[in-house]
Amino acid sequence: MSDKNPYGICTWDETSNCSGCKNKEKLHCKWDRNVLAAFLVMSFSFVIIAIFGMVLTGYATGSWWPLLAYIIFFLLFFCLIEIRILCSHCPYYAEKSNILHCLANNGTPKLWKYRPGPMSSMEKAGLLAGFLIFIGFPVLSQLYGLWFVNVKPGYDTISALGMGGIALATLLSGVTLFFVLKVFYCNRCVNFSCPLNSVPKPVVDEYLRRNPVMREAWENSGYRQDKYGP
Known about the structure:
Blueprint: H1 33-61, H2 65-85, H3 121-151, H4 157-184, H5 201-210, H6 212-220
Helix pairs in contact: 1-3, 1-4, 2-3, 3-4, 5-6
Transmembrane segments: 35-61, 67-87, 125-148, 160-181
Keywords: Membrane, Transmembrane, Transmembrane helix
């Protein structure tokens, strides 16, 4: 263990024998700026479309509170709540640093201690609720804008088509983000207890075998490995 890696997590072990690891190429278990960049491009593509649609809704309806509420939710959820209920369980959080260095919420302040065990049922429910609001609230807001321009005198068909188009684009970009993450990221993510994680159990078991602090915490929570291996 080192000062940077007080829990001995192999993700932060610069001397770990990755070439001989059974999980090589199966996990995003080392910091990779290319993986982070791809994640941010996908995520913020949705955010930009969603915010743009909510701005149009604000102009059309004269009501700006949905946009303000969404911005506040975004900051609170992704900078505080998600860090506590999801990220504090992740091996990337185990680094001794006041700033999180990871493949998603990179650069976020770390306000809580590392918790090597799996997420609780309440944490999983809170995370899924947050993700649903993240994608669903902008769509509902824009659908309200679509309804508004259809019933309010002074708006024409072009306005309605524009509002409908941006609402559809927001929905499709949100659904696309979800499926891309599930297909290309969630099946290689080392935050194994996330409700969206789909890493095969043998791969999880091998990672836990190499990281005793995590293995002990998971076993204490009731998790059982098939075998530890050599």
